[in-house]
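Appendix B, Record 12. Input sequence as logged:
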Amino acid sequence: MSTDDANHWRIAAREKELDSIHQALVRGGGALLVGPAGVGKSSLLANALRRAADEGRTVLSVGGASWNSGTRARGFGSLAECLEFMEPTTRGTAHSDHPIVGIDDAHLADPASSDRLHRLVAAGRLGVLATARHDAPAPAGLDRLWVERLVDRIEVAPFDSTALDSVLHARLGGHVDTFTLERLWSTTHGNALMLRELVEHALEDGSLRCVDGTWSWLGLTGAPGRRLADVVRVGLRGLDAEENELVHMLALAEPLEAEIVTSFGLAKAAESLDLRGIVRVERSRARVSLRLAVPLSRAVVASGMSDLTAQRLRRELADALERTGTRREEDVLRIISLRLESGLVPPHEQLLAAARTAIRRRDFPLAERLCLVGLQDSPSDADSSFHAPLPDSAGHAALVRRLVTRASALGPAGARDRIRAALLLGQVLVGKGAFEDADQVLAAGMGTDVPLPLDEYVSAVHTRVINMAWSLRRIADAEAVLTHAVAAVGPGNAGVLDASRAVIAVLSDRLQEAVAIGEEVLGAPDPADVAVAPVLLPTVAFARAEVGDPAGALALVRRYQEVSADWDVDARLITGAVSARCSYLLGHLRGAADALDTMHRDLFDSRPMMMQSVLDHARVLRLLGRPEQAVTLLRQTIAAEAPLEYPTAQAWPLAQLAGALAESGRCAEALRTLVEIRAARGGAVPSPVAEDEIAYEHALVRAHSGDRTGAVAQALAVAERAREAGRVVRAVFALHLAARVTEGAAVRRPDLGLLEVARRAGGIVEVIGDHIRALAESDGAALHRVSERLRDMGALPLAAEAAAQAARAFKTAGQRRKGREATAACTELLRAPSAVLPPWLTPESPRQQDLAPLTPREREVAALAATGLSNRDIAGRLVVSVRTVENHLHRIYHKLGITARSHLLRGLQGASLLSEGAPALPRQRSWQSGGDAAPPRRHTTEAAMLLGGPLSLLSRPEGARAYAPSPRQAGPGRTT
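Logged structural output:
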């Protein structure tokens, strides 16, 4: 990488460390920066020395801290040379004139010089800034500096994902999408050196590119580049033969259990590599395994290995795994995979069994390889091109259809195995997201006259039907295929196809129909007699909870609890997730969070997480006031590209992430995440359930970002759609958001029926309904009771909000003593770190009061400009002229009190985009007093989106309900 490239990497996300260094220098002694290799210690040192020189201090540099700060700086090749030069000049100097010695890699200094340095620092004659590796022995004089507290010891750690985002934004000058952010973090583990080299390599080969102001990276597209590989190899120098053998093994088959490493006689090599930080030891209960510490090392070492060495090691590792016993299903997959990659093709039945296991574990690349090999005429004819996954392409399905046609000519026995492999391949393609290819492959396999096992045929029909209804949104075609299949096998043999009917009902927004199917099929006297229960039960329980009967859904799950112990892992997991969902809807938030946390902690390393359980877990964490934990969980899941289950959609976890970021106070990040939703959706339209979940999160972000009129309109639209479909839970929560933002003014008389249904649902849904009613009636006593119930459930943020609203209602009614009591209750709740009031209840700062609010169009332009788009790009996105964009930006700068585009992000975070400065809405007379329900409304199109125009998933049908404040409510300076 050139020097110019390196200069692009400005110091970012190291404010805490730089402040600690500055304070250490003010105190006089200095600081020792300690951390692993490559975390950025040298960059911090150079930056701190530059700042000290700019402040007028005399700086002497030893080692590799290359920089230039004028005549008060001088460089030396060794510490001894530096001390020899400066020691006579320091006698009798004032403290402020004491020189600062900067030493890079101070652990390499000779003992005599380090002792001399110690004496000079102890005498107060100089300050020192030094770096040292934490895993390298340092000379005694250096250690004595921090042991005797003459200098501060500052730990420099790798970047976490949040810091990584700041670093990448500083380098790239634009938003980095969530997938890319987590992918880069998991590849580099936050190591600054590896991050810099990987990003520069990706920029050079074009795999990291900017589209519509957002940077995306799909991962390494081939072998690492020469420079990147050489940087990784620097950390692998000096290995002996045994250490090199173990590194090669890990590159091919990590993680390796410690007992396998020991069986090869490499235990001492493992200990040595662990001490050097080349391998990482992982412990899961009694299991101890090894991985390469730098994830990039795996690709670098594997790409440089000879084919003969790779073949020998793969076969030896497969034999060793088999000798230790295949105690876990992943062991079988590893053995099959290693032998296949070494040129040994397993028997056909073993291939299909392994493919089914890989599908269950969501290892779709391996499953695809196994299925394609299984489609060959015989193991000996296996084409080497099938030892690696085929790229997704239009020709993929055509190739498989040709293989299926060829297999049909092999006779019944030979054709049957190949068709079974084709049907499994169809499931793999669904998992990989190649939905059109999957439908063609499944249609080809099911369209032959070859007799197939009934359970495999029914499973293939189920896969195709769900793919058509959920992924391709061809619900009518899916119902036709399902009807034909049930007729072909007979109703008594339909089995899992009953679950297919329920899923189609949910995806069609007919949840009551799914509940009826469940009552028909799952109502058998003996649960053990219902073979379809593992597939049908989660769908029916989800639908039953969503229509407002979480207690009935939980009772249904518990009825099958005993027999579910014999179900496969996936069925148990999704059923457990639905059970936790019902529990939190019934108000048991902490218990649901603990159950989901245990599930994810135990399974994260061994198998992919279920997306629906992650979404429920994140929702519970947010209700408990832990949105930062939800952000971490969602980002990990998004980066892992966890497979989706119906009725989720790819944009759903991104929408939840945006909502969690907004609740964490990171509205700028939330707005940028909303941009990603468009790309994640592509041209697909999610199911109504997913559509409204995504729209709800968007409304929440808008409310937190200051667009409260638009947020209320969008939330009311979601509530109306969900109520019409009978989805009580979503309707209540959406109406709740609108009521919170307007303090009940958005609620009207027809909503009474929904609130009665919420009361019958019980749990947190009932409390949320009571909160809506109390806000609409400005009932301070009812709001106080709601606050107490939410507090008992653990929903502290909502409890504090209800208490603040109670205080305001009491004071408006002239009940000052009760108002003070409610204020005290709110203050007490806010003492908990998890309880934070939303921005619409937070008092305004003087600066916010002085600023005029942004118009919806100005909000659009500001948000797009903050993501890094040029004026021309913004003009193209909004279909206006460049001059119009420039005029908008001129007004935005004035309103936000900023002077440059680079200050936009800070201005949006701190000023009117985060708070409209809206006064409290005047109270309306309650329904029960015969007054008007809410402010006047007009039927208009939905408020403009914050980012890049309306998303189709958020558009409101003609005549849908909208909210717009009356001029009296809007307050001075607000638009209606």
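DSSP finds 47 helices and twelve strands in the chain.
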